[in-house]
Amino acid sequence: MECPQCKQVIDNVMAVEQGSKPKENDLIICTMCYGINTFDKDLNLVKASDDYVESIPEPMRFEIDEFVKDLKLRRAEDNAKLN
Ligand SMILES: [Zn+2]
Q1: CA 44 – CA 67 distance, rounded (Å)
Q2: Residue 82 near residue 75, CB atoms below 8 Å
Q3: Is residue 30 a contact partner of residue 10, using CB atoms and an 8 Å limit?
Q4: Which of 28, 44, 45, 58 measures 20 to 30 Å from 1, CA to CA?
Q5: What is the Å distance from ligand 1's center to 82 Cα?
Q6: What is the β-pairing status of strands 27-29 and 36-39?
Q7: Is the pTM of this model over 0.70?
């Protein structure tokens, strides 16, 4: 699965419903660019539209923010180890 925004292969995803099969309108956060992606009706990973992002409920947006914060923290730690 490739991020439509940064073209990196996504190996670690955050789906709205954990453990369920990918389906249309699932929310997928790219762990490289933190872009918000979703599946279209043919299960192609596409960049989420502004409308889609607007429609994300507040608690979910909070979760996304926390998830991205955690990713950034982990990446900073990985970078620190390399230096
Ligand atoms: Zn990306």
Answers
A1: 23
A2: no
A3: yes
A4: 58
A5: 22
A6: antiparallel
A7: yes
What is the Å distance from ligand 1's center to 37 Cα? 8
Sign of CA dihedral 48, 53, 55, 56: positive
Task: State the DSSP code for 37.
Answer: E
Of 60, 48, 51, 55, the closest CA to residue 17 belongs to 60
| Structural domain containing residue 33 | 1-83
pLDDT tens for 4-43 read 999 988 765 555 555 667 889 988 888 889 999 999 999 9
Q: Which tokens sit at 14? A: 């955050």
Number of structural domains (the chain) is 1
